[in-house]
User: Which sequence fits this backbone?
């Protein structure tokens, strides 16, 4: 007979607050092992005594079937001196100074909880805060670690006898579910009109639903902040919301009760279905079906709609299908245009009073404001455009050993990144750092992350742009706290983010097609159409779009007509009165612009690819003015006809990408009455063809055959798909983003990777 052994097991990863200890308890008892399990401050520790074969099966089971929400980063086992135990038990947590464990993101309501939610016999029947160890709020309620109820915003709710029993029972699926609650002891909802409470609980819900049916705007307190909701099929209601929110064209996110409802409005592939139903429950951008029921104002000029499925019990109750109740709701962040999402009750009342007709709120505090994540599928894989609720604060592998780094990110779509050991914590989406509220959210979130993950950064990495608020914060902090400071070029950060996401250990340089709107270059010009050859530690700028002026900076970004005329001027093409941008600007405006251009007044040089897209969109008549960044390009993308194969040509000379031939050809097409669809399609094809031509040249020069696509321009689905397939057909290996945003939301991660590798070398 084989004698029993004792083994110590240390598991690291997301293993707390996800039902890990009960899971261990179950399998240990199943294999007749004795000993204990406990949460330590950096994971889970187990000591088991039993038959060696059983111990092996036990370990296999942990690796093969961990709980749904768990993420195991490492398992360490050590045979110890033999110890006898009478049973297997769950012991009290241990915590050591300075150690930490990863925190789970918020997770959508699980099927078990949903079953209880609709079961009249259950004590949590229709209770809007039902949750368990497999689902519910996490990151948005955690104030500090260890993840225990007193350190969450649930601390003010004292558990009732029944909840306590479940909480303490290792056999129960709510064993140590920190946000455990029931109608008797937990948070509850109420309905407010103006500042007056009108109803509570089920009645509150009934009135809230009624207000939606009536075409009113409802503010809803959710998981990471407030939403503004209305009937998406009610034209009047959607228009009212748009006017009140002062959000002129930006598409609204939508929520549908189930896939069946989504499929009435959108095409859904298998991958898109999986993404919609994933536990992260992001907004998924889907190709829309042209359905007359949907209010036109929901997503003007867009080929896709951003839809998500319910992710809290309250959403399920609110959207419950019923005759007369809409099957699709607008669910947009509760804020005025460009401000961060409201998350504190007083704040919401003040900021949303001019928008919402009534409020559906609850009395559980939100610790961390977190927006909905935005994703789409590109070539069968998820492509995260805004990484926030459901994903943050999950870490990424960071295989560069270094002192901790804080990377402060970019100015727009800001996220920041903190590293510790071999992990990088990329923050949730903070937003555009152009108003005080967002900047405050940026500072508060950095402080929170540093506390939560016990990080005291020694190195601070920032963008090169001296006027980015994130850069100013980094410089000031490095000075004050005497930390090492690194300034990092924007497009190199894009390239690095893409390399580190796909090939973290890559040593040799690759081609980086870094196309975006704006990023400061080392020559102080505004870069954005950049072909780099580089790796994490360094890069060279091999090609870039030939500079054109950016007269007046921001004015021209808002008015693509000015950009189109600038490109024409730069290519010595007269402003023919029949040209649409020339018609859009009045005589004085054109005179001022011409003077600015010829005298070079306030006209920094730019190689921006984003601005070239704006200029073309204006020239072919898509739009002459934009209300949000990228609008003209997005609307032009929606016109592309995939059957058109022709393209215009760029010229490659030395290190320049010259668009002169392209402009001459498109002007010729325009004067020959080519349709906008033809010109938009040919233009998209030209950029893909340009990418191939560039890669062929570099391959000839240096033999490099790996290409990274990064930067905001690659959010364009038509362009990225065409380019990937063209490059792959020509035997290039193509890397693009999936979990890290391709836009400026990925900059911080790239900065951290560059910082780590620069210090090393
Ligand atoms: Zn659950
Ligand atoms: Zn209770
Ligand atoms: Fe960028």
Assistant:
């Amino acid at each position: 007979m084989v004698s029993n052994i004792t083994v110590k097991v240390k598991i690291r990863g997301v293993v707390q607050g996800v039902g890990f200890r009960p899971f261990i308890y179950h399998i240990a008892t199943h294999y007749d092992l004795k000993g204990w399990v406990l949460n330590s401050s950096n994971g889970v520790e187990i000591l088991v005594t039993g038959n060696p074969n059983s111990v092996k099966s036990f370990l296999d089971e942990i690796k093969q079937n961990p709980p749904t929400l768990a993420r195991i980063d490492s398992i360490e086992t050590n045979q110890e001196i033999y110890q006898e135990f009478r049973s297997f038990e769950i012991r009290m947590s241990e915590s050591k100074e300075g150690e930490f464990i990863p925190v789970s993101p918020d997770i959508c309501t699980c099927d078990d909880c949903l079953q209880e939610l609709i079961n009249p016999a259950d004590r949590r029947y229709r209770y809007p805060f039902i949750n368990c160890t497999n689902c519910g709020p996490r990151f948005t309620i955690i104030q500090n670690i260890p993840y225990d109820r007193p350190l969450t915003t649930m601390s003010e709710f004292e558990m009732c006898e029944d909840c306590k029993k479940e909480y303490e029972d290792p056999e129960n699926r709510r064993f140590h579910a920190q946000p455990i609650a029931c109608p008797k002891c937990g948070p509850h909802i109420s309905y407010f009109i103006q500042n007056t409470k009108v109803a509570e609980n089920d009645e509150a819900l009934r009135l809230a639903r009624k207000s939606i049916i009536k075409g009113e705007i409802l503010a809803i307190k959710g998981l990471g902040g407030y939403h503004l909701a209305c009937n998406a099929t009610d034209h009047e209601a959607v228009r009212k919301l748009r006017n009140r929110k002062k959000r002129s064209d930006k598409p609204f996110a939508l929520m549908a009760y189930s896939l069946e409802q989504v499929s009435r409005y959108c095409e859904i592939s298998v991958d898109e279905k999986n993404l919609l139903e994933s536990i992260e429950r992001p907004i998924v951008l889907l190709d829309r079906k042209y359905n007359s029921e949907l209010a036109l104002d929901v997503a003007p000029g867009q080929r896709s709609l951003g839809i998500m499925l319910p992710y809290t019990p309250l959403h399920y109750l609110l959207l419950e299908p019923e005759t007369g109740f809409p099957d699709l709701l607008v669910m947009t962040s509760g804020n005025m245009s460009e401000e961060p999402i409201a998350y504190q009750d007083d704040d919401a009342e003040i900021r949303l009073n001019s928008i919402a007709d009534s409020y559906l709120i609850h009395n559980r505090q939100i610790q961390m404001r977190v927006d909905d994540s935005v994703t789409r599928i590109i070539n069968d894989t998820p492509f995260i455009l805004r990484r926030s609720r459901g994903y943050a604060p999950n870490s990424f592998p960071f295989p560069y050993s270094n002192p901790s780094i804080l990377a402060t990110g970019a100015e727009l779509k800001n996220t920041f990144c903190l590293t510790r050991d071999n992990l990088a914590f990329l923050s949730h989406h903070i937003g555009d750092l152009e108003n005080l509220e967002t900047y405050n959210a940026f500072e508060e979130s950095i402080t929170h992350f540093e506390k939560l993950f016990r990080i005291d950064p020694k190195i601070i990495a920032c963008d090169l742009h001296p006027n980015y608020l994130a850069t100013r914060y980094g410089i000031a902090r490095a000075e004050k706290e005497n930390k090492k400071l690194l300034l990092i070029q924007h497009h190199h950060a894009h390239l690095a983010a893409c390399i580190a996401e796909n090939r973290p250990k890559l040593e040799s340089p690759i081609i980086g097609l870094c196309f975006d709107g704006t990023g400061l270059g080392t020559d102080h010009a505004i870069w954005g159409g950049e072909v780099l050859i580089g790796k994490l530690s360094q890069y060279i700028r091999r090609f870039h779009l030939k500079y054109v002026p950016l007269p007046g900076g921001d004015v021209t970004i808002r008015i693509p007509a000015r950009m189109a005329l600038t490109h024409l001027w730069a290519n010595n093409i007269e402003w023919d009165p029949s040209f649409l941008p020339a018609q859009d600007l009045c005589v004085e405006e054109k005179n001022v612009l011409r003077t600015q251009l010829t005298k070079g007044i306030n006209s920094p040089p730019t190689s921006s690819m984003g601005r070239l897209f704006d200029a073309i969109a204006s020239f072919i008549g898509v739009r002459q003015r934009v209300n949000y960044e990228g609008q003209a390009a997005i609307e032009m993308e929606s016109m592309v006809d995939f059957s058109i194969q022709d393209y215009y040509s760029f010229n490659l000379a030395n290190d320049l990408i010259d668009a002169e031939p392209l402009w001459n050809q498109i002007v010729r097409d325009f004067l020959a009455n080519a349709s906008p669809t033809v010109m938009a399609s040919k233009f998209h094809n030209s950029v893909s063809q340009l990418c191939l031509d560039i890669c062929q040249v570099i391959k000839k020069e240096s033999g490099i055959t790996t290409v990274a696509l990064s930067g905001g321009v690659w959010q364009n689905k038509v362009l990225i798909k065409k380019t990937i397939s063209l490059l792959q057909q020509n035997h290039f290996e193509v890397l693009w983003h999936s979990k890290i945003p391709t836009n400026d939301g990925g900059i911080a991660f790239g900065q951290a990777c560059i910082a780590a590798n620069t210090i090393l070398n």
Summary: Residues 676-702 form the longest helix (27 residues). The two ends are 56 Å apart (CA to CA). Residues 575 and 582 are 6 Å apart (CA to CA).
